[in-house]
Design a protein that fits this description.
By secondary structure, the chain is mostly helical. Helix content is 72%, strand content 0%. The N and C termini lie far apart (53 Å).
């Protein structure tokens, strides 16, 4: 394994995953949901599955296919399930905006991996990855659309659509740009972590936000 890889490559994904899972679990528990423990178990099983896939003798493209097929089904099922509707009834709409700030740390992580020679520059904000626009504007959208109501909710809708497109762009970059990952199973897993965890989560949160807009949830009952 490459001994020159910085410790941040190992720490940042762990911190982001643990922090987001803990935050979402706390929000669910605080709002009376009995499914908080189910979330922890589900995230753990998902990461184990992704590690096993990323450790297999497949190409990067095949690994991403094995990862995205099941997660796409899960996201679609969750969005149209009663569970998501129940969740949207409990949470303020700005929650789904502010939580996208985690993508700033994902972009920093991608940059560090580039500096360590793990991924090419095209996958960073200095290349063809423009996802950093979303976390940099999340506070503005959350405050001016929902906290102060100075901007129309249409601004949040366009912002969510842009966020979905930019997330998909990261996945497409991983698929289209040749990657040579030869530093061991753990580093391969960590190099794929942005598309394993960050991209699916970002898309799910955007879709929940859009669903909440069209259903008119929360504001009518709280």
């Amino acid at each position: 394994m490459n001994q020159n890889i910085s410790i941040a490559v190992y720490i940042i994904p762990s911190v982001i995953t643990l922090s987001l899972t803990s935050l979402i679990t706390y929000i669910l528990y605080r709002n009376g949901s009995s499914r908080a423990i189910v979330l922890i178990i589900s995230v753990s099983l998902w990461l184990i599955y992704c590690y096993l896939v990323s450790s297999g003798k497949f190409s990067v493209h095949e690994k991403l296919i094995f990862i995205y097929l099941p997660v796409s089904v899960i996201i679609i099922y969750f969005i149209f399930s009663g569970l998501s509707s129940s969740l949207l009834n409990r949470l303020l709409p700005q929650y789904f905006i502010y939580i996208q700030l985690f993508r700033l740390f994902t972009e920093i992580y991608l940059w560090i991996m580039f500096l360590d020679g793990i991924i090419p520059v095209q996958l960073t904000f200095s290349g063809l990855n423009y996802d950093i626009f979303i976390p940099l504007t999340a506070l503005l959208i959350g405050y001016f659309v929902y906290s102060s109501s100075k901007w129309p909710e249409l601004a949040a809708l366009f912002w969510n659509i842009a966020g979905i497109i930019l997330s998909l762009n990261i996945a497409l970059l991983y698929i289209s740009i040749p990657l040579e990952l030869k530093d061991g199973n753990l580093v391969i897993f960590l190099s794929l972590w942005p598309v394993i965890f960050s991209v699916p989560l970002a898309i799910l949160i955007h879709l929940l936000s859009v669903k909440q807009m069209f259903l008119g949830r929360y504001s009518e009952k709280n």
